[in-house]
Design goal:
Layout (H helix, E strand, L loop, with lengths): L1 H4 L2 H13 L3 E6 L3 E6 L6 H4 L7 E3 L11 E9 L9 E5 L12 E6 L2 E7 L4 E3 L9 E9 L20 E5 L1 H19 L5 H14 L10 H19 L8 E7 L10 H21 L5 E3 L2 H10 L1 H13 L2 E3 L14 H19 L7 E3 L10 H7 L4 E4 L14 E5 L5 E6 L19 H9 L15 E5 L10 H9 L8 E4 L2 H10 L6 E3 L15 H27 L7 H13 L12 H33 L2 E5 L9 E3 L2 E3 L8 E4 L13 E3 L2 E3 L3 E5 L5 E6 L4 E2 L9 E6 L18 E3 L5 E7 L3 E10 L2 E10 L5 E9 L4 E8 L6 E6 L2 E6 L5 H4 L4 E2 L3 E6 L2 E7 L4 E5 L2 E7 L12 E13 L4 H11 L3 E4 L11 E2 L1 E3 L4 E8 L6 E7 L5 E7 L3 E7 L5 E4 L1 E3 L2 E6 L4 E8 L1
Parallel strand pairs: 11-12, 11-18, 11-19, 12-13, 14-15, 15-17, 16-20
Antiparallel strand pairs: 1-10, 2-3, 2-4, 4-9, 5-8, 5-10, 6-7, 6-9, 16-17, 21-24, 21-45, 22-23, 24-46, 25-26, 26-27, 27-28, 28-29, 30-31, 30-36, 32-33, 33-34, 34-35, 35-44, 36-43, 37-38, 37-40, 39-42, 40-41, 41-44, 42-43, 47-50, 48-49, 49-55, 50-54, 51-52, 51-55, 53-54
Helix pairs in contact: 2-4, 2-5, 4-5, 4-6, 4-13, 5-6, 7-8, 7-9, 8-9, 10-16, 15-16, 15-17, 16-17
The protein binds zinc ion.
Zinc ion binds next to loops.
């Protein structure tokens, strides 16, 4: 009771604030800064300093720059000669506070040499001895003011300049403060039943009484500090044992590659964060830090090679841990399977090239990504990684995953040791954070919040991991954080904290992992469901470029087989894939960034398109020399025969082999086009009879083969519905469950026209309006297909409206199937439990399907991801109209395509095939070369099992043979025979990093092997 009655904890907290103010023994103001705005971030210092005019003086206490400004501040400083010659001197630079994140932030140059960084959370720069010479030295800050608040920011929020000074520190006072801060922080978080609570308060009380605070403060105070600290250390040793829990603390700076800032700003953010970390490493030899995203290191090589070399030295020492596996921390809902492979391939290659074979830790580090596809465990292992880390699933709205340390089982059965760090911000609704402040409360909380305490073997405790440091906008750890960690190595009643590496933690966890539970399924984030749809042009560009590069690689690989003079465009493909991967960053592709990010992103996609198109043209020109001037290319794994436009006319393609090049003279025009009807109220072929009313609504789809109506009674198909889309928070990110409160339907058609009436295709063009947006749909039926296509153009003018296309179908099933990266996942069509209703909007790749025993309907898209299938209605989310952080997101013209594909039985390879056909059209080459004139079609590769899809054909990264990547798509196992269009010398199975594993049986043009459910099979095929 005594400590409560006498307010011991409150008294100590007060004393610590008083003592904190005395750490600086000497102060001297520096002359006011001169300030200029800069046009762009990160010009070299000599270019910045060239400006003569327009400097503005910023006295302390005055308000200076507005948000989102690049700036330069210049002044000078002198360490007074009267100060203690052996003292520790520093610059204290409180240049302002700009709301969230570490803004404002700047690189600090001393006499023109880049030395440190300063920001809102790092205001002290320790000066090297050579600056303490009584001479005047120049001080330059080049930085960015920040966004002026949290996500959106206040554009009028000027920074207030504080009193910048040179100071002399009393390190012993700071050391006492660190110990006392930690002791008080731990006591505050202990139960009043815990003896350590009393011991620690008594320890603090007795020790701090020794501090001599008599005025005027002088030598007596500084002398008393030593005694007080000694007493405090002694008392703490008597206060009890540490908890039998090991916690690895790793410094980190989460840097969003683009978000509320552009790539250009991020390049500088990296330099600022990394400088800060390097300076902390100078002061604290045991301090460790982990940094993901090779893209950031790659920028650094260009922008600041000297700093990159410093980092390499720290990596070599084992204190700086490259981590992550991927090129950037990529979105895992939207990025395709092959894109994820490239994230790993480029990421791991970069780390190996620059840091050495084993320098990067084998951890997929994705703390902040909005959901994790069920095939990631397989990809993680295929990429040579072993572990997975995130905290983001703890942001879910309804359910907390019951495990924090567990085995995550993937679609194919692969299990990956996974950890969700449990460090929690005290006032946050979320389960945990990757931006811990390393306070005693958060460190104790990491243990309290951990759900797997009883999953350790007898007598053992599962280890914990804490990632600390300012993040999102970078910044990284602070001195106080590092001090806390060092204090808590063996502190009474607290976990034993050790600065270490992430890999150290995982190795410890693995050693005691035998009782850990298994989570078998995707890691769905019950949050940010709008990110499957927002910034639709960006998502479309991503999908189109994924296929454009696929085609380019297939054509280039084929050309390299036929033409010894053809140079496979490694560098161009590397550049294009890096741009695609960069734009899959978890705030670009999901649509959660500011407008300038999307302007830059779309121009990068244009660059990718040009590269892909150049590569494809060059390869086709080369192939023309062998096959003749006019070619038809099937760049897919499937035999196909859809009509194709040649010389401006829709023509029969004939039966095309997988991955084939066919001289156009081979086209078979004799095929029977069958019955095709096109009227304003009817589209009909041998498979479907589609009826429309005068409003342009589809009132009936009759499957002529199955002899059944697809629409439930009194429903319309392809009905567009606009919903009020006003989430609680996080506008671009979130669709909230109440979005269906209010809705509006499209107006009846203003015109219905027959565009094509056979013999190969029937097309109606329908113009309509929904709210303020007009749109045109071309609804088509080919003569030889049961697929109904909807090509759409819309001028989208809505704000805070979400648009869906609805397809009610007469099919009964409690689950629907959604394609994910190289596989699929079943999700409920009901809302029985919180886990079900939480998934009211989910992501799919190219198709979704609702099937019952004998029948089903698939919905295919060419660039959309958001879906919901509730009851018997399949809905595709087409567009949103979000206003933050980009007020004009998605306004204007959009084009997209989706297709309805009814089928007998459940979904199978036919749905998969149709999805590829929609996304990966036939290519027509009408060149003018004179050479070559083959008459036969050439198929580069095909496989005899319909459930195996050949996804990728490319040349190996090392130039040795072709890489052919397949995946099993239907949860089956067996043997396969791969047929190649060339004699094969050798074939190896490899991982996705293209490391050879087993060799396969080869005979002539055939390779045989076996496969398991959902296996990704990468082959290196070496031609004879
Ligand atoms: Zn992030």
């Amino acid at each position: 009771m005594r400590h409560q009655i006498r307010f011991t904890l409150e008294k100590i907290s007060r004393r610590l604030i008083e003592i904190e103010g005395l750490v600086y023994q000497q102060h001297q103001p520096i002359p006011p800064f001169l300030f200029r705005e800069l046009d762009q971030p990160g010009l070299p210092l000599d270019e910045q300093a060239d400006f003569e005019a327009n400097w503005e003086e910023i006295p302390p206490g005055s308000y200076w720059a507005l948000p989102r400004r690049n700036f330069i501040l210049v002044t000078n400083f002198t360490i007074p000669t009267a100060w203690n010659k052996t003292g520790l001197n520093a610059l204290y630079l409180p240049i302002g506070i700009a709301g969230d994140f570490s803004h404002p932030e700047a690189l600090v140059y001393l006499d023109g040499i880049q030395y440190a960084s300063c920001d809102r959370h790092h205001q002290e720069v320790i000066l090297p001895d050579e600056f303490c010479d009584g001479q005047e030295h120049s001080l330059t800050l080049i930085g960015w003011t920040g966004i002026g608040g949290s996500t959106v920011g206040d554009m009028q929020n000027r920074l207030k300049m504080g009193s910048c000074e040179v100071v002399q520190l009393h390190p012993e006072t700071r050391a006492l403060l660190a110990t006392a801060r930690v002791a008080a922080g731990i006591a505050k978080h202990l139960s009043h039943q815990d003896p350590a609570y009393f011991h620690l308060l008594t320890a603090l009380d007795e020790a701090l009484r020794l501090v001599d605070l008599r005025m005027p403060i002088g030598n007596d105070f500084y002398k008393s500090i030593l005694e007080a600290h000694e007493q405090l250390n002694y008392n703490i040793k008597q206060a009890g044992q540490a908890l039998d829990v090991d916690l690895t603390a790793i410094g980190h700076a989460h840097i969003d590659v683009a978000w509320l800032w552009t790539l250009g700003q991020t390049r500088q953010k990296s330099r600022r964060s990394f400088t800060n970390v390097l300076r902390l490493m100078d002061s604290y030899p045991s301090f460790t830090f982990t940094q993901s995203q090779p893209q950031l290191y790659d920028y650094l090589i260009e922008d600041d090679p000297e700093m990159f070399q410093e980092i390499k030295d720290r990596v070599e020492e084992g204190r700086w841990e490259p981590i992550g596996g991927m090129w950037v921390e990529a979105d895992c809902n939207i990025s395709s399977g092959e894109s994820l492979v490239r994230q790993f391939l480029l990421g791991r290659e970069f780390f190996q090239d620059h840091f050495g074979q084993e320098a990067d830790s084998p951890v997929l580090w994705l703390p902040d990504v909005f959901g994790y596809a069920w095939n990631l465990p397989q990809l993680i292992k295929e990429a040579g990684l072993e572990y997975f880390f995130t905290i983001k699933i703890g942001w879910s709205q309804y359910n907390r995953l019951p495990f924090d340390s567990f085995w995550w089982q993937g679609l194919d059965g692969t299990k990956v040791l996974t950890h969700f760090s449990t460090t929690k911000n005290p006032d946050s609704v979320h389960a945990s954070t990757y931006n811990s402040d390393a306070s005693p409360g958060q460190i104790i909380g990491t243990w309290l919040n951990f759900q797997n305490k009883d999953d350790a073997p007898p007598g053992k405790t599962l280890p914990l991991l804490m990632s600390y440091g300012w993040g999102d906008g970078g910044g990284g750890p602070t001195r106080e954080m590092v001090e806390n960690i060092l204090e808590m190595e063996n502190f009474p009643a607290a976990p034993r904290v050790k600065p270490g590496k992430v890999i150290d933690f995982y190795r410890q966890l693995e050693a005691v992992s035998e009782r850990l539970p298994v989570w078998n399924g995707e890691l769905y984030l019950e949050f940010h469901r709008g990110t499957y749809t927002t910034q639709a042009r960006n998502k479309r560009a991503n999908r189109k470029m994924e296929f454009a590069l696929h085609d380019a690689e297939f054509l280039a690989a084929t050309a390299s087989l036929f033409d010894p003079g053809y140079q496979y465009p490694y560098d161009a493909l590397d550049k294009a894939w890096k741009l695609v991967c960069l734009n899959q960053f978890h705030d670009i592709l999901p649509g959660s960034s500011i407008a300038p990010v999307y302007t830059e992103s779309l121009s990068q996609y244009e660059e990718v398109e040009q590269i892909a198109s150049r590569i494809s043209k060059a390869a086709l020109e080369s192939l023309s020399a062998h096959f003749g001037p006019h070619l038809l290319v099937n760049p897919s794994s499937f035999e196909r025969d859809e009509p194709v436009i040649v010389a401006g006319e829709l023509s029969e393609s004939g039966d095309l082999l997988p991955y084939s090049i066919t001289p156009l003279m081979e086209l078979n025009d004799d095929a029977d086009p069958g019955e095709l009807v096109c009227k304003k109220d009817l589209l009909e072929n041998d498979y479907l009879r589609v009826e429309l009313n005068s409003a342009g609504d589809i009132t009936s789809i009759f499957d002529k083969i199955a002899q059944r109506e697809i629409l439930p009674e009194d429903t319309l198909s392809n009905q567009w519905i606009a919903f009020e889309d006003r989430p609680l928070n996080w506008d671009a990110w979130d669709i909230d469950i109440f979005y269906d409160d209010k809705k509006w339907l499209a107006e009846p058609a203003s015109s219905i026209k027959i565009i094509e009436k056979g013999p190969l295709r029937a097309t109606l063009e329908i113009k309509r309006q929904i709210l303020s947006s007009s749109y045109t749909q071309r609804i088509s039926l080919d003569h030889n297909s049961a697929r109904l296509d909807f090509d759409t153009e819309i001028d989208w003018q809505e704000r805070k409206i979400l648009l869906k296309a609805a397809f009610p179908v007469d099919v009964l099933s409690p689950t629907a199937t959604y394609e994910i990266q190289w596989g699929n996942v079943e999700r409920p069509t009901h809302h029985n439990t919180s886990w079900d209703w939480a998934r009211f909007e989910t992501a799919a790749q190219k198709w979704v399907d609702l099937s019952e025993g004998q029948y089903g309907v698939s919905l295919i898209n060419d660039c959309k991801y958001g879906h919901d299938i509730h009851g018997n209605t399949i809905r595709l989310t087409l567009l949103r109209g979000t206003t933050a952080p980009d007020p004009g997101a998605d306004l204007g013209k959009h084009t997209f395509k989706y297709s309805l594909y009814p089928h007998q039985g459940s979904w199978d390879e036919n749905t998969v095939k149709q999805a590829y056909l929609v996304n990966n059209p036939l290519l027509v080459w009408e060149g003018n070369t004179k050479a070559g004139n083959k008459t036969e079609s050439f198929s580069l590769v095909s496989v005899d099992q319909p459930n195996l899809i050949i996804e990728t054909v490319k040349k190996a990264q090392d130039g040795n043979g072709l890489i052919i990547r397949l995946y099993e798509s239907q949860r089956s196992r067996g043997s396969f025979t791969l047929q190649t269009g060339f004699p094969v010398k050798k074939a190896f199975q490899t991982n996705i990093l293209e490391d050879n594993q087993d060799s396969l049986n080869v005979e002539g043009n055939q390779i045989t092997g076996t496969y398991k459910p959902y296996q990704i099979i990468t082959l290196r095929v070496i031609p004879k």
